[in-house]
């Protein structure tokens, strides 16, 4: 039903986010191996950039997978805090 379809969409979105992060990190690696050394040569020749270059940082975070049918610690805490002791 609707819930299963929603979970399918959520899982697919997470996979795409992870693939995006992997591709971004590959691009950063390529930049570091191929582009930056060439840019250093320009600097050695006295050619300077008008703007300082800020290198991108590799991403280490992956998308969190939904816990189908399992309560998380956060969701249990939210339920417990709403109760009258």
Summarize this structure as a short list of keywords or feature phrases:
single chain; 85 residues; mainly alpha; 2 helices; 0% strand; rod-shaped
List the helices and strands and how they pair.
Blueprint: H1 2-44, H2 73-81
Q: Would you give an account of this structure?
A:
The protein is mainly α and 85 residues long. It has a domain at 1-48. It contains 2 helices and no strands. The two termini are 37 Å apart.
Residue stretches low in confidence (pLDDT < 50, at least 5 long) are: none
Number of strands: 0
Give the SSE order as H and E letters: HH
Task: Indicate the radius of gyration in whole angstroms.
Answer: 23 Å
Short précis:
By secondary structure, this protein is mainly alpha-helical.
């Amino acid at each position: 039903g609707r819930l299963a379809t929603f979970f399918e969409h959520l899982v697919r979105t997470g996979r795409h986010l992870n693939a995006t992060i992997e591709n971004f990190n590959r691009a950063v690696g390529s930049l570091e191996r191929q582009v930056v050394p060439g840019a250093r040569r320009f600097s050695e020749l006295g050619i300077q950039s008008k703007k300082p270059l800020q290198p991108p940082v590799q991403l280490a975070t992956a998308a969190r997978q939904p816990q189908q049918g399992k309560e998380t610690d956060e969701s249990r805490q939210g339920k417990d805090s709403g109760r009258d002791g």
